[in-house]
Write a structure and sequence with these properties.
Blueprint lengths: L2 E4 L12 E4 L7 E3 L4 E3 L21 H9 L3 H4 L3 H8 L33 H13 L6 H13 L4 E5 L2 H11 L7 E4 L5 H9 L3 E4 L11 H7 L4 E7 L8 H10 L3 E6 L6 E2 L2 E2 L7 E4 L12 E5 L1 H10 L8 H5 L20 H12 L1 H19 L5 E2 L7 E2 L5 E5 L8 H10 L15 H7 L7 H9 E4 L7 H18 L7
Parallel strand pairs: 6-7, 6-8, 8-9, 9-12
Antiparallel strand pairs: 1-2, 3-4, 5-13, 10-11, 10-15, 12-13, 14-16, 16-17
Helix pairs in contact: 4-12, 5-12, 6-7, 6-10, 13-17
The structure holds pyridoxal-5'-phosphate.
């Protein structure tokens, strides 16, 4: 069996620039563009989870790029004789142009995920022990995790929840923020920080961010305060703490509540003090990509008084949780004192969290190493703006956000991401600013340029892989991919 590869066989050659045809049977044609591929006659096994009935790839499109470009031969072998034949074509008959409109080639065989969690045998053993313990929901491990987290980050008190979103929602509820109230926050965040304001019926008021840290601009916060303003939700973007002193004094002067969205900021410090050590509400995330993960999960910290109320709101409004009712010596009776939510963490999540806490310092040290290597590689090139960190903070380095400098490359950010994908490197964008999402745009009549710093940053940014699970080779591959793209698409300067 032989294969012919051909750029012109496609019915829509500009969109799908090449085909692969079985020259013996003419039974298989594959058309590929940067984001998807279509299998026009179905010889790739239908059992593959990536191929639907109509032959479109839905899941791991990147995998199929790899298959169709013939780059990653070992990965083909599990997909049956047809694809084994493609694999055996060898380099001389490799499909032309690799993949992608811009035609980069993979710097590595295996796709590097944007953020792989680091989970070891200790986490697995602890989860198994929790499973065997007979107590699966919030119980002794959850309590222990709360205590250890509280001690590790010097929090007055800690409440383990099923997400950071839950923590923010509960905080607003406990602070009695609702209809008629305004809450000032940033457009440079994930929807959760703002959705919770809508959930309680208050109005989110967005203000622009600082050009370097992309955190809330304190002056812009002051300018947005009205008699209806009740709170500020300050996001420690990418793990870099906000200007806490300024925001605390603004909150004090105008009698506002300060809620910290510390989804990215486990382990961050402001002037030597850990984020979460204040008496105000601070919500952390343990989502799968976060610096410390429980799969899904969160921690709300603050004064004991606030958290006593939060504990009730987070669990149906019950005055006593299950652990204190069902454990030995527990009493069955309880009362519902308000209509609360069902936001508790489980002991299975806490088991993961306890072991993640044990390895946390090492994981953070590895993040810093990777950040230093990226900075060293990219900061010398005019095409890139590397993330900055102010001297009075300790950055948690949740994200490494690289910005492309306007006019330095002949491709834009989206094309840059396509190029990274073609090189088998996963990336992401943090974030599509809130005011550009249709719900917020339409509800509040926002225009992209209403927050020019956030908008410009969004257009130029991409987040590179950053995880303590990355090997030195992974880091080198990311650097090679970024510099290769710069080399290929950097604007050439005329010699002076
Ligand atoms: C800034 C920010 N806030 C809140 C959240 C919500 O976190 P969770 O998924 O734990 O609810 C996220 C999630 O990624 C986030 O990035």
């Amino acid at each position: 069996m032989a294969f012919r590869s051909d750029r012109l066989g496609s019915p829509r050659p500009t969109q799908f620039p090449w085909t692969a045809v079985d020259t013996e049977t003419h039974s298989q044609q594959c058309y590929c563009n940067t984001g998807q591929f279509q299998l026009l006659s179905g010889r790739i096994p239908k059992s593959s989870p990536t191929v639907t009935e109509n032959g479109r790839a839905t899941g791991d499109a990147q995998h199929w790029f790899t298959v169709l470009s013939g780059i990653s031969h070992p990965r083909l072998l599990k997909f049956g004789p047809k694809l084994r034949t493609i694999a055996s074509m060898g380099t001389s008959e490799r499909f032309p142009g690799d993949v992608g409109r811009h035609g980069g080639s993979a710097v590595r065989e295996k796709f590097l995920s944007f953020s792989l969690p680091l989970v070891g045998a200790e986490e697995i053993d602890e989860v198994v022990a929790a499973l065997k313990s007979g107590w699966l929901t919030a119980g002794p491990r959850t309590r222990q995790f709360e205590q250890e987290f509280r001690d590790a980050f010097h929090c007055p008190a800690a409440l383990a929840l099923n997400s950071c979103t839950a923590g923010l929602h509960v905080a607003l509820k406990v602070l009695n923020i609702g209809p008629g109230d305004e809450v000032i926050t940033t457009p440079m965040t994930f929807a959760a920080s703002v959705n919770v304001i809508e959930h309680v019926g208050a109005r989110p008021v967005l203000v622009d961010v600082e050009p370097d840290t992309l955190n809330l601009q304190p002056d812009a916060v002051v300018a947005a305060i009205t008699p209806a303003t009740k709170a500020i939700i300050a996001v420690h973007y990418a793990g870099h703490p906000v200007e806490l002193h300024s925001l605390r004094s603004i909150a004090e002067e105008y009698r506002l509540e300060l809620i910290e969205d510390a989804a990215h900021a486990v382990g961050a410090r402001f002037e030597g003090t850990p984020i979460g050590s204040g008496t105000n509400f601070t919500a952390f995330s343990f989502y799968a990509t976060k610096n410390l993960t429980t799969g899904e999960g969160g921690m709300l910290t603050g004064s004991q008084e606030l958290l006593d109320r939060a504990r009730i709101v987070s669990l149906h409004g019950m005055n006593r949780e299950a652990w204190s009712r069902y454990a030995a010596g527990g009493k069955w009776a309880y009362d519902i004192v308000e209509p609360g939510f069902k936001y508790n963490m489980t002991d299975l999540q806490a088991a993961l969290g306890l072991q993640q806490l044990r390895r946390f310092d090492r994981m953070q040290a590895r993040r810093r190493e990777i950040v230093n290597r990226y900075n060293e590689a990219f900061s010398r090139h005019a095409a890139f703006l590397t993330p900055s960190s102010r001297s009075h903070v300790e950055n948690a380095w949740h994200l490494y956000v690289l910005r492309l400098r306007a006019g330095e490359l002949t491709i834009d950010r989206n094309q840059f991401i396509d190029e990274m994908t073609a090189r088998n490197i996963g990336t992401s964008v943090h974030f599509i600013p809130i005011h550009m999402h249709s719900y917020y745009r339409d509800r509040y009549g926002y225009h992209p340029d209403d927050f020019p710093v956030a908008h410009a940053a969004f257009r130029s940014m991409l987040s590179l892989p950053l995880s303590p699970s990355m090997s030195d080779q992974d880091v080198a591959d990311v650097i090679e991919a970024v510099l290769d793209i710069r080399e290929k698409y950097g604007r050439r300067r005329m010699a002076a």
